[in-house]
Amino acid sequence: MEIIEKYFTDLTSEQKVQFGMLQELYKDWNLKINVVSRKDIDELYLRHVLHALGIAKVMRFKPNTKVMDVGTGGGFPGIPLAILFPETSFHLVDSIGKKIKVVNEVVAGLALQNVKTTHGRVEEVDDTYDFIVSRAVAQMETFHRWVKNKVQKKQNHDIRNGILYLKGGDLTEELQKFPSAVIYPLSKYFEEVFFETKKVVHLPIKYKG
């Protein structure tokens, strides 16, 4: 928990309580339904929570922003972002039912009012969002194809509506077809070794009505 407060110094008392509850909630649910590897559960705040909040170093979501988290798994990056931005609406989507079950239980345990979930494929979601977030669920070309019609027209942020994607490693080849993509190395914001190769990729998407 200290590592979250190290980089996010203006948390409210409620946010501190909610972030503090994550370890116990995930440990408890992970015993029943494995959504986080055993190695990672002991480093939950570094490898999952802070990693998810890397998106918040690139983008401060404004109130009433709509964000969809595609392939959320156990709720990352969506749940930590929902704690940090209580006035932003988050829609967490995953095609695996047992993962959404854990997400629902964690959301209920934290009493988050700004999260809804869907068990299904992103292609079946009939809505549009300011931003689509995710953590390396597919190559960018595939992911872009899944979500390119899910971005809404009205712009409310300095950064254009589109994808905010957590990825690692060398992305040169993967992003060749996307010259408008901007890479933000997380090592610029977080000093831990884990973040040396981790990045947030912002890919603006034009609205297609």
Q: How do the strands and helices of this protein lay out in sequence?
A:
Blueprint: H1 2-7, H2 13-32, H3 38-41, H4 44-58, E1 66-70, H5 78-84, E2 89-94, H6 97-110, E3 115-119, E4 131-135, H7 140-147, E5 162-168, E6 182-185, E7 198-204
Parallel strand pairs: 1-2, 1-4, 2-3, 4-5
Antiparallel strand pairs: 5-7, 6-7
What would you note in describing this structure?
The protein has 209 residues and is of the alpha/beta class. Helices cover 35% and strands 19% of the residues. It has helices at residues 2-7, 13-32, 38-41, 44-58, 78-84, 97-110, 140-147, and strands at residues 66-70, 89-94, 115-119, 131-135, 162-168, 182-185, 198-204. A 7-stranded mixed beta sheet has the order 3-2-1-4-5-7-6, with helices on one face. The radius of gyration is 16 Å and the shape is globular. The chain starts with a helix and ends in a 5-residue tail after the last strand.
Name a few traits of the molecule:
209 residues; single chain; alpha/beta; seven-stranded mixed β-sheet; 7 helices; 7 strands
